[in-house]
Amino acid sequence: MYSPLLLDHFQNPRNAGDVADPDASVQIENPACGDILKLTVRVADRRIAEIRFRAKGCVPAIACASLLTELVQGITIAQAGKLRREELVHAIGGLPDASSHASHLAIDALQSLLTQIKS
Q1: In angstroms, rounded to a whole number, what is the distance separating the alpha carbons of residues 103 and 14?
Q2: Which of 71, 68, 2, 76 lies closest to 39, judged by CA?
Q3: How many domains does the chain have?
Q4: Is 13:32 a contact under the CB 8 Å cutoff?
Q5: Tell me: the pLDDT tens digits for 62-109?
Q6: Overall pTM surpassing 0.85 (yes/no)
Q7: DSSP annotation of 106
Q8: Which of 57, 71, 111, 112 could form a disulfide with 26 if both were Cys (CB 3.0 to 4.6 A apart)?
Q9: Is the distance from CB of 53 to CB of 65 less than 8 angstroms?
Q10: How far apart are CA 96 and CA 88, in angstroms?
Q11: Helices 100-118 + 59-72 axis angle, to 10
Q12: Contact status, residue 16 vs residue 40, Cβ threshold 8 Å
């Protein structure tokens, strides 16, 4: 049902927690399922220097958030803004249709976070 990588990110989440004194912070909730994702970030030289997450939700929501932080850590804000949901889904090893909301939550949170940085 879930890929080995997805299960690994759920069981051993990367970058969990909060960034101290973040440059931006966002928390969004999926009203349909109740999953909640919070992202905090510190930016240096227009790059994501540090990003952390806190998630409350299903296995795929936590795994997608964890992988998202790994994918955008160290890249420019512009590069992070180009990350697409399909790329996240592919990188996690695929998602069942019933779990696709997890990738939407992660990408929506990232886009909201990037909007705060650009402001």
Answers
A1: 16
A2: 68
A3: 1
A4: no
A5: 999 999 999 999 999 999 999 999 999 999 999 999 999 999 999 999
A6: yes
A7: H
A8: 112
A9: yes
A10: 13
A11: 40
A12: no
Cα angle value 118/83/86 (rounded, 5°):
145
User: What is the C-alpha to C-alpha distance for residues 16 and 53, in angstroms, rounded to an integer?
Assistant: 5
- Report the interhelical angle of 59-72 vs 4-11 (nearest 10°): 90
SS3 37: strand
Q: Which domain holds residue 29?
A: 4-118
Output the domain CATH number for residue 90: 3.90.1010.10
CA dist., res. 71 & res. 91, Å (int): 9
Residue type, 81: G
What number of residues does the chain have?
A: 119
Check: CB of residue 100 under 8 Å from CB of residue 86: no
DSSP for 59-116 reads HHHHHHHHHHHHHHTTSBHHHHHT--HHHHHHHTT---GGGHHHHHHHHHHHHHHHHH
Instruction: Report the pLDDT value the prediction gives residue 34, as an integer from 0 to 100.
Output: 92
State both tokens at 98: 């019933």
